[in-house]
Fold this protein.
Amino acid sequence: MAMKTTGLTVGGKAVGGPGLAEIKPHNDAAIRKGLYQLQRYVQQSAAARGTSTGKRPAWMAGSEPDRTSVWLVTYSPWSDKGPPTHVRVFAHELKRDDLLKKGPLPSLARLLVSRRELAKVELPKTMPFPHPGKPDLFGLAVEPLVRQRFAGTFHRPQQRPQRLRRKGPDVLWRELGDLFRELADETGDRYWREVANELSHGV
């Protein structure tokens, strides 16, 4: 059963359709940067499915699906007292078509389909770069944990670790590959796992 906390729904649902997500710290500047990045990725995805003959971005592999599910995932350090012991995680589902419209990019509030606070992520006791006073290093340390929380809550498959300096969205998924991956998990059949890996190659 969903619970309410500070106006946000705690809990999750399955995310439908192929999609992408960007992970950012929960502050105005980072959120705005994340929205512009998502706008660019959605535009690139749409162009790749059209008649454009321009160079495809490196983050795409194979036939580009219609990525209907677009998310901005944000995080902020949390503690009862002292150094942070957890991070709060917020999942913002966005209006994909509004990101494709010409003109100035709307605010996050105008782009929202829904917003949820996910379960807090506990930080490892020996985590490198544990203090948010160095936000770039802190982000490097916590983003894999945030990615796992998003994937697990919304029933997305666990993502491969992002390669350093890789261009493109922080999280990518294809629905058909997910289906065969779930089948492999249920049956233990390696054949379905191989099919899922082939369908999600490069994603």
